[in-house]
């Protein structure tokens, strides 16, 4: 759970999740939406992957990134239990 909160603590990573909510993307397409280096985007994607917020699938020479809605649903369920 700590990895999830660490990943969500950064605006760039939250913005990446918003992009991936719309469609699956390769790192280069994600990088085009930001004014930071491609290695920095890769670092952000790595943190999101370690938190299980993003999954990746290699297709040929490309890696396609997707949002992992299952972990987000689990997180929301946990947050709801705090209200009780």
From TrEMBL:
Q: Gene3D superfamilies from the xrefs?
A: Winged helix-like DNA-binding domain superfamily/Winged helix DNA-binding domain (1.10.10.10)
Q: Which CDD domains match?
A: HTH_ARSR
**TM spans, by residue?**
none
**GO MF annotation terms:** DNA binding; DNA-binding transcription factor activity
Keywords associated with the record = DNA-binding, Transcription, Transcription regulation
This protein's record includes keyword Cytoplasm: no
Boundaries of each HTH arsR-type domain copy? 1-84
Protein name as catalogued: DNA-binding transcriptional ArsR family regulator
Species this chain originates from: Saonia flava
């Amino acid at each position: 759970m700590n990895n999830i909160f660490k990943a969500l603590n950064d605006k760039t990573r939250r913005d990446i999740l918003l992009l991936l909510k719309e469609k699956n993307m390769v790192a280069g397409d994600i990088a085009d939406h930001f004014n930071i280096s491609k290695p920095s985007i890769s670092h952000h994607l790595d943190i999101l992957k370690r938190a299980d917020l993003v999954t990746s699938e290699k297709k040929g020479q490309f890696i396609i990134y997707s949002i992992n809605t299952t972990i987000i649903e689990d997180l929301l369920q946990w947050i709801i239990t705090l209200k009780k």
